Amino acid sequence: MAMDGEGMREMAAGAAAGGRFSGMPLMAVRPGSAAAPAAGGGSTLSLTAGETLYAEGEPAEHWYEVVAGAVRACKLTPDGRRQVVEFHLPGDVFGLDEVDGVRGLTAEAAAAEGRTVVIRRCRRRLESMAEADPRFARRLHEMALRRLARAHARLVLLGRNGAVERVAAFLLEMEARMPRSDAGPGGFCLPMTREDVADHLALTTETVSRTLQMLRRRGAIALPGLRLVRILDRRALQGLGEAAPMPAAPLPMRGASAPGRRLLAA
Fold first, then answer.
1. Distance between alpha carbon 187 and the CA centroid of its chain, in Å?
2. Which among 101, 63, 88, 82 is positioned nearest to 205, based on CA atoms?
3. Which of 160, 151, 178, 150 is closest to 241 using CA atoms?
């Protein structure tokens, strides 16, 4: 899962205490992506929508930082269904939550428009810094605990709340994490498709779209563009889940989306 802004600052402080990140050997770049040296070591990758950054079961040799766009962390089932576990957004660091050195999730570029840009750095350097500096290791541990707390909160949300509260909570989270856009005060741009949002909230795409329109009609949000959202009434948005519960759809996961599908049209 992604580190928050505070976690990023802590990592930077730890890096300053233990030395700068060094360069790293490049792993094979997947078709369609481009790699270039990044400041402070590592390489910059530019990916198209749906391109795989790493797959479940691969060795975890690198960690990543999102520069632009978005990355979805997915769990795939043997029958082809997908659960979007987390979205990594600009400024987020990810790729540090593997088990026994193996990726437990698949990471894919999720920006529906434009390219997703990430910086890839070698894990060995990070691990050597943690071994050499107990304070840095403690910071990493604290960041892992915060990610775990967010994961627990999301499980409670998915297990006890209806579609309205899930979508409202998701919009509030995105508004806090995304850069401001030209949608005005309280506005932001969702980089992912509605199908991605549905697979993250364990809803159907139709339920997500219907709930967004309901929130718009009630004056809680505005939808000025294809992916633009503006929060108009934060208090109402926080309370709508209890005021008008909507049962969750019984289809928590679907297969991966077809390239080029535009699912965010109202």
1. 18
2. 82
3. 160
CB 121 within 8 Å of CB 41: yes
Which stretches of the chain score pLDDT less than 70? 1-41, 160, 181-184, 240-266
Cα–Cα dist 250/200, whole Å: 14
| Entry pTM | 0.72
Phi-psi label, residue 6: left if phi above 0, alpha if psi -120 to 50, beta otherwise: alpha
- Burial of 191 from C-beta contacts in 10 A (0-12 / 13-18 / 19+): buried
Amino acid making up residue 177: R
**Which neighbouring-strand residues pair with 5?**
none
Q: Angle at Cα 63 formed by Cα 61 and Cα 68, nearest 5°?
A: 140
CA–CA gap between residue 190 and residue 263 (Å, rounded): 12
- In angstroms, what CA-CA distances link 215 with 211, 220, 234, 238, 244? 6, 5, 11, 11, 10
Closest Cα to residue 46, out of 147, 132, 145, 115?
115
Per-residue pLDDT tens over the stretch 163-185: 998 999 899 989 888 877 666 67
Q: Across the strands, what pairs with 180?
A: none
Domains of the chain: 5-143 (2.60.120.10), 161-243 (1.10.10.10)
Give the residue carrying structure tokens 């005005």.
184
Q: How far apart are CA 16 and CA 207, in angstroms?
A: 47
Q: How many CA atoms lie within 13 A of 69 on its CB side?
A: 22
Name which of 240, 238, 96 is nearest 176 in CA terms. Answer: 238
Distance of alpha carbon 212 from alpha carbon 208, whole angstroms = 6
